[in-house]
Amino acid sequence: MPNAKADNQASILWTANDTPLSSAYDDTYYSKEGGREETGHVFLAGNGLPDRWRTMPDFTIGELGFGTGLNFLQTYHRFMATAPKDHRLTFISFEAFPMNPGAMIRALSPWPDLASLTRPLLAIWPPSAGWHTIPFEKAALHLAVGDANATIAEMPRKADAWYLDGFSPAKNPELWGEALMAAVFRNTKDGGTFATYTAAGWVRRNLEAAGFMVERRRGFGRKREMLAGMKNRHGDTAGSRAKEAE
């Protein structure tokens, strides 16, 4: 991928309102209109959370694009507040170029109530290439550092929900390609879901080709639309219906 540092750490710039921006992909790590609010609208609400994990004692989330860690931290924060005491969260995330520790602290500084949850991350940051497991009180974070197109084959378990949160598809097409979306589908449980901030037509087509049922929903902030969808638990997929219609 272009312009990455030799040590595989992300190269970060900062916008006027102190939002982190990748110099490699010329895109921000989260919405300038509110990163935490974006996580809530796109990924939590988009996957029907926290309602679903209230009824499932062991819930698994997969994520493409760990970035600042905000999605994980906000998800775990909500899980701690809403899940039954004996329930557990498994969060599996993929990141090619981790931030350096200082940039991560700065990126998360608008939300001081997440600081205590960030400490286990900083204890191993920046992570080396390969898989890392970071334990939390009611969760386990499995982080794969490297190209998700390769490391997703080693995913330890299938996901109940996916956060598709790579940089803009136009600038980071490798994280939205047909083969990777097919791998995401294979690593989704029957009845599992996905959500993403983008509504790009070719991303939607790749998700449908993989087998997901896909729908457009209201986007966050200035984005008019986003995508969300499901792997039908009865095996009736968008791809199979399209084939039958031919």
Main attributes of the structure:
30% helix, 3-stranded antiparallel β-sheet, alpha/beta, Rossmann fold, 26% strand, disordered C terminus, 246 residues, 9 helices, 11 strands
Question: How do the strands and helices of this protein lay out in sequence?
Answer:
Blueprint lengths: L11 E3 L5 E3 L4 E2 L6 H10 L6 H4 L3 E7 L5 H13 L5 E8 L5 H8 L6 H8 L7 E6 L3 E7 L2 H4 L7 E6 L13 H9 L1 E9 L4 H10 L2 E6 L6 E6 L7 H8 L1
Parallel strand pairs: 4-5, 4-8, 5-7, 8-9
Antiparallel strand pairs: 1-2, 2-3, 6-7, 9-11, 10-11
Biggest sheet details: 8 strands, mixed
What name goes with the CATH superfamily? Vaccinia Virus protein VP39
- What's the N-to-C terminus distance? 38 Å
- Which structural class fits the helix and strand makeup? alpha/beta
Rg, rounded, reads 17 Å
Strand order of the largest sheet: 6-7-5-4-8-9-11-10
CATH third-level topology? Rossmann fold
At a glance:
The chain is an alpha/beta fold.
Protein architecture, described:
- The protein has 246 residues and is α/β, with parallel strands linked by helices.
- The protein has a single domain, classed as Rossmann fold (3-Layer(aba) Sandwich).
- Helices cover 30% and strands 26% of the residues.
- The strands form two sheets. It has an eight-stranded mixed β-sheet with strand order 6-7-5-4-8-9-11-10, sandwiched between helices. Strands 1-2-3 form a three-stranded antiparallel β-sheet, with no helix packed on it.
- A hairpin with a 3-residue loop joins strand 6 and strand 7.
- 42% of the residues are buried.
